[in-house]
Write a structure and sequence with these properties.
It is a multi-pass membrane protein. This is Putative MATE family efflux protein. The protein has about 450 residues and is mainly α. The chain folds into two domains: about 15-225, no CATH class; about 245-439, no CATH class. It contains 15 helices and no strands. The longest helix is centred in the last third of the chain and has 60 residues, at about 380-439. The two termini are about 15 Å apart. About 45% of the residues are buried.
Length: about 450
């Protein structure tokens, strides 16, 4: 049993691991907003092409995130157990596996592009735009996956400053290069993908040598039981991939329900979703920073430290998001007016900003518990938490609220669903930790 750490010491470690991820996530969100704004100036067809690209992109992201979760969980656990050589071999193996897997997926998407577009009911006039855009976009997706795997290796080794800094740098580069490639060089939609390729390539030029210098991976697999290791990777990767894809299914169902209240409700829903993304950034950062810490503690069998650090994170999220909710409630009128000039949309958004943010603390706790269960080697428990949140709590409460009191009731339903999801997620995490303690 490893020496127990104090809450103050663990809190400092958690802060030092989390703040780089916080800025990294914020920078990526800012880039995505800027990218959408630039593409929006190109007209309807490029926007439509991007719209048909999104569901395919979610599949690729599911593959890379699933592998990244497996990589972080297994490497950090190996390091906690003082198995440095095994951790390096794992990093090399998963990097190769991930890059080849995403490359194969990209190739399949390209060769089946017409069939995919047909299934998505894409209009004929979009095909030409997509045929020009997708080769560049698929290359950018492959490079995005590659740099993500390198980021995962850094995080698993306890370094979040390097990936966090590079996330900011590549995002700023992308924002700068976007208008150059799109408008100055007149590459249009393809220029957006080219800007991403250029910025990520520059990031890799910095990142790859740093990882090599620190000896965080090797491609010498002598003595490694590759078949057994791949089975272990798949055990975590499979459920994690499914967990990543579940929100897309849930989002489609929720959008269909909201659409029943008209275009005004949909517009307010889209704006509110974007607002929520920004205000839960602390939870998103914690989902990236905590798994390496928990994985190492698991490898060292420091169960008390695991419990302490999760208690610190949970307490922080509930207090921080409560403060955000109070601000959102007090400034709901100003915020809704600032986010849209349409009075009808502003009215709906105003109610959303007053009600839903109250529940974002429990929602953040639920998100963190998913990542923690993956780090504890309980991927199916993590998948269960995700499924319960979306299909047992969120969607049913959304529907019941809408039936009882229309849009306002729907927002109350979201609040109730998020609170129930957070409570149940914490209970399931506690059960997982109890099982691990029992051996």
């Amino acid at each position: 049993m490893a020496t127990q750490q104090t809450e103050t010491s663990l809190g400092k470690q958690l802060f030092s691991m989390t703040w780089p991820m916080l800025f990294g996530v914020l920078s990526i969100m800012s880039f995505q907003l800027a990218d959408s704004a630039f593409i929006g100036q190109l007209g309807v067809l490029p926007l439509a092409a991007q719209g048909f690209t999104m569901p395919i992109q979610l599949v690729l992201i599911g593959v890379q995130v699933g592998l990244g979760i497996a990589m972080t969980s297994m490497i950090s656990k190996a390091l906690g157990a003082k198995l440095q050589d095994y951790a390096r071999q794992l990093a090399g193996l998963v990097l190769l596996l991930g890059t080849v897997s995403v490359a194969i997926c990209c190739s399949i998407i390209w060769f089946l592009s017409d069939g995919i577009l047909s299934v998505l009911s894409a209009p004929d006039n979009v095909y030409g735009v997509i045929h020009s855009y997708w080769p560049w976009w698929l290359l950018s997706a492959l490079l995005s996956a590659l740099i993500y795997f390198y980021y995962s290796i850094c995080r698993a080794n306890g370094n979040t400053v390097l990936p966090g800094t590079l996330m900011v740098v590549t995002s700023v580069l992308n924002i700068v290069l976007d208008p150059v490639f799109i408008f100055v060089f007149d590459f249009g939609l393809e220029g957006a993908a080219m800007a991403t390729i250029a910025s990520i390539f520059i990031g890799l030029l910095v990142l790859v040598p740093k990882v090599s210098i620190n000896h965080w991976l090797v491609f010498n697999f002598k003595g490694l039981n590759i078949a057994k290791t791949l089975t272990e990777i798949g055990h975590i990767m499979g459920p994690a991939m499914v967990s990543q894809l579940l929100p897309s299914v849930s989002s489609l169902a929720a959008t269909k329900l909201v659409a029943g209240f008209g275009a005004t409700a949909i517009a307010a829903w889209a704006l509110a979703s974007r607002f929520e993304f920004f205000v839960i950034v602390a939870a998103l950062a914690l989902t990236m920073s905590m798994p390496p810490m928990v994985g190492r503690m698991l490898g060292a069998k420091s169960f008390d430290d695991i419990e302490k650090v999760i208690k610190i994170a949970t307490r922080f999220l509930l207090i921080f998001q409560s403060a955000v909710a109070l601000l959102s409630f007090a400034l709901a009128g100003l915020l809704s007016s600032a986010m849209t000039s349409e009075a009808a949309v502003s009215d709906v958004l105003h109610w959303h900003l007053m009600i839903v943010p109250i529940s974002l603390g429990p929602l953040g706790v639920c998100m963190v518990m998913v990542s923690i269960c993956n780090a504890l080697g309980k991927p199916y428990r993590a998948l269960l938490i995700s499924a319960l949140r979306l299909f047992v709590f969120f969607l049913p409460c959304l529907w019941i609220g809408a039936q009882v009191a229309d849009l306002k009731g729907m927002f109350v339903g979201i609040l109730v669903g998020n609170v129930l999801a957070g409570f149940s997620a914490h209970k399931l995490y506690k059960a997982s930790l109890k099982q691990l303690r029992a051996g």
